[in-house]
Amino acid sequence: MRRLFPSPDSLRPRAPFSRWDLVVIPGILVLLSLLTVALEGATQPFGPRSPDLTVSLEPVYLPYYSLRSLLRMLLAILLSLSFTFVYGSIAAKVPRSERVLIALLDFLQSLPILGFLTASTAIFVGLFRGSLFGLEAASIFAIFTSQVWNMTFSFYSALKTVPKELVEAAAMLRLSPWQRLWKLEVPYAMPGLVWNAMMSVSGGWFFVVASEVISVAGREREQYLPGVGSYIALAIQQADVRAMIWAGISLFLLVLLYDQLFFRPVVAWAEKFRLEQSGAANTARSWVLTLLQRARLTQRIARLPAALWEWLWLCSARFSRVGSALEGRLTRRRRERLADLGFNLGLAVASLSLLGVLLSYLFGPGLGFQGGRMLQPNPNLNRNFSPELARRFASLGIAPGADRTVWLSQLCAASQGGQVVREEMRTLLHEPEVGAPANLVEACSRPLAPTGKVAWPEVWEVLKYGLCTMLRVSAMVLLAACLWTPIGVYVGLRPTVAQWAQPLAQFGAAFPANLLFPLFVVALANLRLNPEFWLSPLMVLGTQWYLLFNVVAAAMTLPNDLKEAARMHGLSGWAWWRRLVLPATFPALVTGGITAAGGSWNASIVAERVSWGSTTLVATGLGAYIAHWSTGAFNPHVGLGMLVMGLLVLAYNRLLWQPLYRLAEERYRLD
Amino acid sequence: MQSILSATHLTKSFSTPEGRPFTVLDDIDLELKEGEIVALLGRSGSGKSTLLRCLSGLVRPSWGEVRYRGQRVKGPMPGMAMVFQNFALFPWLTVQQNVELGLEAMGVPAPQRRRRALEVIDLIGLDGFEKAFPKELSGGMRQRVGFARALVTNPDILFMDEPFSALDVLTAESLRDELLELWSERRIPTRSILLVTHNIEEAVLLADRILVLSANPGRLMAEVTVPLPYPRKREHPVFVERVEQVYRILTTRPGLEQPPAEAIGIGHRLPRAPIGALEGLLERVAEGPGFGREDLSKLAGEMQLEVDELFPLLDAAELLGLAVVQEGDIRLSPLGQRFAAASSNTRKKIFAERMLLSVPLVGHIHRVLQTRPNGRAPEERFVRELEDYMPTEEALAVLAIAIDWGRYAELFEYDYNAGVLYGEGAPSPGT
Ligand SMILES: Nc1ncnc2c1ncn2[C@@H]1O[C@H](COP(=O)(O)OP(=O)(O)OP(=O)(O)O)[C@@H](O)[C@H]1O
Ligand SMILES: [Mg+2]
Question: Residue A281's pLDDT band (boundaries 50, 70, 90)?
């Protein structure tokens, strides 16, 4: 709308603050101080001698725990964004890198997220030696791996599909690469990126809850990082119903706050980057964004970096330099081919040697698996001891292995089950590098088997587990689709119902379903139901919502003329479904199905092995297998489980979802 | 007069998916002089846009060189600007921010940027819309922003790729007039304009010189000068004469007396002629006052067809032996006459016969389907064959035309979902 006369507001002298600032200024101050508190907690010292981390089940601590979990979430999403920009840009722009990077991304995103937790803990603890932040980083990294891949994909594919005319315009205007990134590429990628980030964060809550309890090599007990997830884990372990309810309430508030304070504003703001050249019909709104835009202080703060920005901007400018052509001369084909050949050769050699390393790491004398039965894992005290320490171990009759690893079982044998600990041994066990369990006797009383490496029969076993899990995922997604499609269509066709159902479904997707797992355990245990079958619904408990809100959205946008035409032709009952509704919602169903299935695979690690108090229910499956071996350090069994799951998910997506997706794109798109 | 931009031996080839080079522009020499507007005309796919992009530095030629004021062009040079067919505005930036963009690349500090942008916005008639987003504007206003963004850097040379073709007739007319006004009153410092167009009248209205490009490969075929002062009147005898002349040039095949019925293979680029439009054209010519003979410029004006729509129809009619195009006229052949007068079924029969005879690709598909035991073949098979001769996009387009024609003539059928071609009478794979 164009105003003919300036509004009276603009004539009034402008005070530095408006009444909106009354809300915004205290808000900012509170946020800043909370951030400080959380950061302080996350960077406390933590060494080998520090006591085990634990949490208290008193509800008064919950606000603080929530704060810490929130901080992890925040850091993870920031990390994801940075990774997305860098990785996506490289893949889209550096010639040839695409082939490697995108294939890698595809594989990484099929790997089970919680498997990363075991793999990364040792690295981060080593990296931030002496600080709690090592453990924090491991937890953040697990959340990061749950969020980042789809964001990176979205950014990469946006970079590849920037409209040609805009690219040419940018080149003609001689924008520098820096300017092009911020004026063209990032804005173009923004709607997809924001949408994907929202999906990611929804999924992230699940993993916050699952990744705050960390096993550290050498420590006998698991470490409970202060956070809601640890609180829940402890409550589950102690079968504390009251604590579970408190945790549920605080998570509810947490998800709500995050949505209102963070994501609504971002989504509303990202609306302006849509490419459609016409005014969009239903634009997202956010009261927080309105508040921020009206408050003068934030406007001022927002303008502070402008000077720096402008400086960067002008530094990168081309002045009177020549721009860059979009496409070079036709390179001489021979040289091009040679370079290609060299690159492919290098790639093949690299992947072969990587495969060799991986195989030799995974396979060997299998000790974790005997006679078709899996044994308890035997943690190591540490691997790669310094020669000096290795010698001291050897002098005690504990000969370190070839990679200078000492196993708990060896220690137990040398100390007669922890009963006889001589003085030299005690001092040795207290060396910072050595992670001996605090209660040696108790640790040795459990049946131990060195994890060893993977034996070939185990691979077949694991493949079988994988197929079990695949069966569960497929059946459950199908079931959820059958359940939610009619409901989604019903809701979507009624705008008033859809208005409140849509956010509700989104909330459902964000609310971590693992909180509800214990309910199932109690029910299954009391009713004596077969866990093999009845644990399956847990996998889709948190991911079914993607199906619902995709279907609702599709039904909401069903064109009116199609509906009217259907009515004119008297379509009703099954014919109405078959000819109108199912084809129209099919693409949404596929999109939702892909997300739901991906999430379910990941959830299998926590859903196939659940406990409440002393009851633990296990369903045969790959998730349960990985969970079984995910105690302590990363070992070949976890590696095998992750590898198999990654490959299975990859195959599953390629063979099932991709054809469906293509079909949906080509045949059932409504525009 | 001083030369601003010159190209010598400019050649551009792309490669087909098979790796074979395929030449779009062949050995082009041209020169843009100070103070002139030059229009590039040619059929669709003749390489006009590619030539424009080579000259502006967006695309590097495969051979030959381009010089701008003596400097070798290796990328977009300062002093060059371009106006795009679909405006190419950044939808997330306001009008003013869009206009300032060119200055930002030149490192102009913010206050000067703002001042200069407002000046140009004023000049181009956009004042009041500085804070609007492109999506709030009409097509004409958007292209004004396109012009403002190009002109804000005071370009020496302005490239335009069909700048008016996305606008409706009236808007295009007024925008053209305004541009001419700015140009002839020297209110913009631009010294030369190169314009690609499909519209012959537009070319004669604007340009001092018209360069006509032949297709496959693109070569400079002719040059027409228009020695008329601005603003030009469409009724002026010289104007009418020049329009006629351009039509004559575009319909004359250099060195080929016969329509190339035998010379073409399956890699021939079939003209993009929709059957319905072809029928309409032939009917109109047959029933018109000329009894099967018609002047093309008149026909185009009457049917509101631009070069890129009219010429594919003419090519198709010629290819099928339904008409002969010569000296700016179209003349129906006896077969064409019969076709125009026939019932729908007879038309299909004539079409089918002619196609099997003179469209090798259609004949090839027909034969393949007949030799197959189940009478079916996937479309990829033919796309791959076509890719020997042309890039994938082009191959898909050509196959789409062949399918459209073949379906009309009831030579074969096509299942969109399965991507399978099947002979008449073979069971459909979809059901
Ligand atoms: N990047 C590219 N890669 C491969 N082939 C290309 C590329 N760009 C253009 N071509 C081919 O070059 C030929 C000329 O294209 P161009 O767009 O220059 O024609 P044009 O005269 O502008 O056509 P139109 O009138 O339809 O705009 C076409 O056959 C096209 O397929
Ligand atoms: Mg073009």
Answer: very low
Look at residue A472 in the predicted model and tell me its pLDDT.
92
Residues 6+ apart with CB under 8 A from A404: A383, A384, A385, A387, A390
Ligand 1 in reach of B16 Cβ (< 6 A)? no
CATH of B359-423, one of 1.10.10, 1.20.272, 3.30.450, 2.60.120: 1.10.10
Q: What is the atom index within ligand 1 of the atom nearest the CA of B393?
A: 31
List the single best residue of B49, B53, B92, B136 to mutate versus A (max A Cβ within 10 A). Answer: B92
Minimal C-alpha gap between A599 and chain B (Å): 31
Q: Quickly state the pLDDT bin for A633 (edges 50, 70, 90).
A: low
Q: Does pLDDT of A11 surpass 50?
A: no
**Is the C-beta atom of B230 inside 6 A of ligand 1?**
no
How confident is the model over B61-76, as pLDDT tens digits?
A: 988 999 999 899 988 9
Report the predicted TM-score, pTM, of the whole model to 2 decimal places: 0.80
**Residues of A with CB below 8 A from B128's CB?**
2
Looking at domain B275-341, its CATH class is: mainly alpha
- Which residues, 6+ apart, have CB-to-CB distance to B112 below 8 Å? B103
Contacts of B134 in chain A (CB under 8 A): 277
Asked if the bond preceding B217 is cis, omega within 30° of 0, the reply is: yes
Q: How confident is the model at residue A278 (pLDDT cuts 50, 70, 90)?
A: very low
Q: Does ligand 1 come within 6 angstroms of the Cβ of B42?
A: yes
Please tell me the distance between residue B380's alpha carbon and the centre of ligand 2 in angstroms.
27
Domain ranges of chain A: 374-445, 457-666
Among the ranges given (A78-82, A664-668, B342-346), the one the predictor scored with the smallest mean pLDDT: A664-668
B194-234, pLDDT tens digit by residue?
999 988 999 999 999 999 998 878 889 899 999 999 889 98
For residue A534, give the H/E element and its range. Answer: helix A531-534
A81, A148 Cβ separation under 8 angstroms: no
Across the beta sheet with B157-161, the strand order is: B80-83, B157-161, B192-196, B36-42, B209-213, B220-225
Query: Are the beta carbons of B78 and A321 separated by less than 8 Å?
Result: yes
CA dist A463 and A469 (Å) reads 10
Q: From the CA of A661, how many Å to the nearest CA of chain B? A: 14
Residue nearest to atom 16 of ligand 1 (CA): B47
Tell me: domain B3-251, CATH 1.20.1090.10, correct? no
**Would the CB atoms of B91 and A275 count as touching at under 8 Å?**
yes
Give the residue among A111, A98, A72 at the shortest CA–CA distance from A153.
A98
Nearest CB to B13; choose among A163, A277, A330? A330
Classify domain A457-666 by CATH architecture.
Orthogonal Bundle (1.10)
Provide the residue ranges of all domains of chain B, joining segments of one domain with +. Answer: 3-251, 275-341, 359-423
